[in-house]
Write a structure and sequence with these properties.
alpha+beta, Herpes Virus-1, three-stranded antiparallel sheet, coiled coil, Znf_RING
């Protein structure tokens, strides 16, 4: 699996970091998606000097782009290679934001990029960003975890206003408020929830105990009434005799 992934990485466009689409090879030998290198060179039109985004070799005039047929065939075969069925995103799964066409199940979400990634695209993300970005388990609620005002992670809980805020909010609008980390607040809430569950469980057990005692009392009352009725019938027969 690792060898297959390394092999596939050799056919990634250095600009968009996805499998090459309509691959073209420029004079220095590096290959790109036709649209990616076209976009890069369009930005260099004013200078009339065009460079390779990888090796920075320059060209003048602007080289003509020709489709690399052999490379295109290899990439098409890679695209058709099937992944395990459990990689497909189901109805309740978070989809990879980078996958085009067929969507695969996301395994991680990046709070810095505000995107979710399948295993393949997550590996590419890690290759270029290493440990610099804040990651979380795949979630479809990324926007809810980011401060809309400062575009920072909501990692502080303001007890005064009962809401999650970012670090910049602590000095902008929430100064001198009672604040704790969201992790600390989550731990406290979980502890409170456990105590509440314990209390409710004790109440349920007490109610079940009271109900059982009531059933036993009713059953005892029935037995007593049955004995009295039987005794009365016996006395009535003796009187008639």
């Amino acid at each position: 699996m690792a060898e297959a992934r390394i092999f596939q990485d050799e056919f990634l466009c250095p600009v968009c970091q996805d499998l090459l689409k309509d691959p073209v090879t420029i004079p220095c030998g590096h290959s790109y998606c036709e649209s990616c290198i076209t976009g890069c060179w369009d930005q260099e039109d004013q200078m009339r000097v065009y460079s390779c985004p990888q090796c920075r070799q320059t060209f003048c005039p602007r080289p003509a782009l020709a489709r690399n047929t052999m490379l295109a065939e290899v990439v098409e075969k890679l695209k058709k290679r099937k992944r395990p069925a459990d990689c497909d995103a189901g109805a309740g799964d978070v989809q990879c934001d980078v996958c085009t066409g067929r969507k695969y199940k996301a395994v991680k979400s990046c709070l810095a990029c505000q995107e979710s990634y399948c295993q393949t695209h997550f590996d590419r993300h890690e290759k270029f960003h290493s440990r610099k970005h804040n990651l979380t388990e795949a979630t479809g609620r990324l926007q809810e975890m980011i401060c809309q005002k400062h575009e920072k992670l909501l990692e502080v809980f303001c007890r005064t206003d009962q809401k999650c805020i970012c670090m910049l909010c602590t000095i902008d609008g929430h100064k001198n408020h009672d604040t704790v980390s969201t992790a600390a607040q989550r731990t406290e809430k979980q502890k409170q929830l456990k105590e509440t569950q314990k209390t409710f469980q004790q109440r349920i057990q007490q109610r079940e105990k009271d109900l059982q005692q009531l059933r036993e009392a009713v059953e005892s009352r029935k037995v007593s009434l049955e004995k009295k009725r039987s005794l009365s019938q016996s006395q009535f027969r003796l009187t008639e005799a």
